[in-house]
Target: HIP1R protein
Amino acid sequence: QELRPKSLDIKQEELGDMVEKEMASTSEAIEDAVRRIEEMMSQARNESSGVKLEVNERILNSCTDLMKAIRLLVTTSTNLQKEIVESGRGAATTQEFYAKNSRWTEGLISASKAVGWGATQLVESADRVVLHTGKYEELIVCSHEIAASTAQLVAASKVKAEKSSRNLARLQECSRNVNEMAANVVASTKSGQEQIEEKDTMDFSGMSLIKLKKEEMETQVKVLELEKQLEGERVRLGELRKQHYVLAGGCDHAPEDEEAKPAPAPRRGILKKPPIAQKP
Model:
């Protein structure tokens, strides 16, 4: 009993209540997200027109479809969870079942929180995009996060469910639908971004030769700065993912002595001279 994993913030006898509260909280977050998207749609129609209105409507419609898919996913997940408890608890109470399977219960709570959080973040990103204060890339990242948290919820439910369960089959179908709707958000976001950028085409026809050369050099400097920044952000992303994996319990510690080392540079003496056609 002492060696069993315990949650850091709640007691085991409270796990059952926490599951129900988190599922209800996730449902409320999704309902609120749907309402906010409808308000944004109305606001966009009043404050924008032309290409921007078309782009905003397409993005918000895809976000609405995604929210509806998530809502159905959560409902189906709740039904499956009740089925799992009823078939597995025997003579024990629901609370005792959750306490006995505390590791699984904590995974279910974590997955539910991730889904609700992803939905909230998506709506906030969409709001900023419609108001032209946010970035299209935020919507794309949020869509990927929702797809990942959906997979986490399905995996947590699948562990205890019977393979022949109809609710499990429905949940897997809902998961595929969420992934499809998330992909639609990404597609509508990218196409909308391209439309907006095409509208603001660059015109250099009125520039002098000296002005063009100056602009070219400044752009080259900016490209180098962005490439360096991109490399640094990729390293940071790798470290964040590694720490996330550690905190999620995937491993006890990150191996410090097994970090990727750059491959040694080849000795010039053994390289053959490339043909002229291959020279840069």
